[in-house]
Specification:
D-Maltodextrin-Binding Protein, domain 2; 10 strands; 19 helices; six-stranded mixed beta sheet
């Protein structure tokens, strides 16, 4: 599964075409493009996360410029995919798709998304400064592309980072965070844990569901040289490397709060924010929560670093979404939705979006000295996005079903109900049954997109 980052030919061609467009003669291209669409409504789903709250803050600007109304429903992540799938299969009212990187294969193969190339052919509704090559290549491929076609533009993008309380580390005798997972466990863990005082070194969000499968289970495969699947799409979970990573996760539990297996993102972030733990590995999007005095006690003690390296190197968690135009929308709705997506992911508003608490996928905003100085997460996040594993979680259509299996048995492993070896074998057997039924072993499906 591990491979070097590559961008498909159509992505390169489309990026080159949009980059070559002349800069707009006037700054009001958006207003001009939207004139025939005034009164059109865009319908989408947002999550209750900082990136969505950030774009909501900026929405009045878009609606004032365009006369287009953006309707959104805030849905828990755990229900978002199901809600979108039901809407698309029943040809409902959604005009915009929120696409997690692990949904892109399912959504694209079912024909629910309009390719960006088709939308960009209409110059009247395409930003002359769209610049697809202005996105981090890793993000454009992982979140927006499938089978050589770009479907969505990166939005609400995450890298796994190490957030830590520098004051607690200093009190324990450390002047920097752990560079490796081995150092994390063997050196930092014991000194930062005192169960009698309800003080722990680390909290790992592990609640059953996508949090368990993506944020907990997968986090300890890649850095240890393991992976979910091998090159033939057979289970790789019982390999020496994968077993080492999953066993390491179990060993870390002694330095975590009781009940951590039920922690979701909110509980892990709060544990650091309120001083119960000294370190968490969390998505970059949670920086604004940890830096907010209204929700966090950290103040100047908040510090950020890349995730620790394992025996296979530093291979941090990768997550995020793209926004795409839904094929079920009317022609007018598709145009209006395309205008909104371009605006929401544009270089023009990237700084305002970051200032409002979002994490942009645009490279240029992180070169701004003011942004670099203001936000501690920028340097480690950008470093993480220079190289990575697009298949950190498999992006094929079978992932949602496999994720449920990983979540169930990954939780059982972490709770000690089954051994690492037995749990991994069970996941592998059930996973291969799903892939076999869907034609991944008889040539009916492409194994790697």
């Amino acid at each position: 599964m591990k491979r070097a980052l590559r961008i498909c030919a159509s992505v390169v061609a489309l990026a080159a075409a949009t980059a070559a467009m002349p800069v707009a003669a006037m700054a009001d291209w958006l207003e001009e493009a939207a004139k025939p669409l005034k009164g059109t409504e865009v319908n989408g789903i947002f999550l209750d996360r900082p990136g969505y709250r950030a774009i909501i803050k900026l929405l009045p600007e878009f609606e004032k410029k365009t006369g287009i109304k953006v309707n959104y429903e805030i849905v828990p992540y755990e229900n978002a995919r199901e809600k979108e799938v039901l809407n698309f299969t029943s040809r409902g009212d959604l005009t915009m798709a929120l696409v997690d990187l692990v949904w892109i294969g399912e959504f694209a193969e079912n024909g629910w998304l309009v390719p960006v190339e088709d939308l960009a052919k209409d110059k009247a509704i395409t930003d002359p400064n769209l610049k697809l090559d202005g996105f981090f290549p890793l993000l454009l491929e992982a979140f927006g592309s499938w089978g050589g076609t770009v479907y969505g533009l990166p939005f609400d993008n995450y890298s796994g980072l190490l957030f830590y309380n520098s004051c607690k580390l200093k009190e324990a005798g450390f002047d920097k965070p752990p560079a490796t997972w081995a150092e994390f466990k063997d050196v930092y863990g014991p000194k930062l844990t005192d169960a009698s005082k309800n003080q722990y070194a680390y909290a790992l969000q592990s609640r059953r569901g996508e949090t368990q499968s993506a944020d907990s289970f997968m986090r300890f495969l890649w850095p240890f040289g393991g992976s979910l699947l091998n090159k033939d799409f057979k289970s790789n979970l019982n390999s020496k490397e994968s077993q080492a990573g999953l066993t390491f996760r179990q060993d870390l539990l002694k330095y975590m709060p009781p009940g951590v297996v039920s922690f979701d993102h909110a509980e892990a972030v709060n544990a650091l924010a309120q001083g119960q733990v000294a370190m968490i590995t969390e998505w970059s999007a949670f920086y604004s929560t940890l830096a907010d005095p209204a929700t966090s006690k950290l103040g100047d003690c908040l510090a950020v670093a890349p995730e620790p390296a394992g025996p296979a190197g530093r291979l941090p968690a990768l997550g995020g979404f793209s926004l795409a135009v839904a094929s079920q929308a009317s022609p007018e709705q598709q145009k209006a939705t395309w205008l909104f997506i371009q605006w929401a992911t544009s270089e023009e508003i990237a700084k305002a979006y970051v200032d409002a608490g979002g994490v942009s996928g645009r490279m240029s905003v992180y070169k701004d000295p003011e942004v670099q100085a203001k936000y501690k997460f920028v340097e480690p996040m950008v470093a993480s996005w220079q190289a990575g594993v697009p298949e950190y979680r498999p992006r094929f259509p079978a992932w949602p079903a496999i994720s449920e299996i990983v979540a169930e048995w990954g939780s059982k492993i972490e709770l000690g109900e089954v051994s690492v070896e037995a749990g991994a074998k069970e996941i592998g057997t059930r996973m291969e049954e799903i892939l076999g039924k869907e034609g991944y072993y008889d040539g009916k499906k492409k194994l790697l997109q």
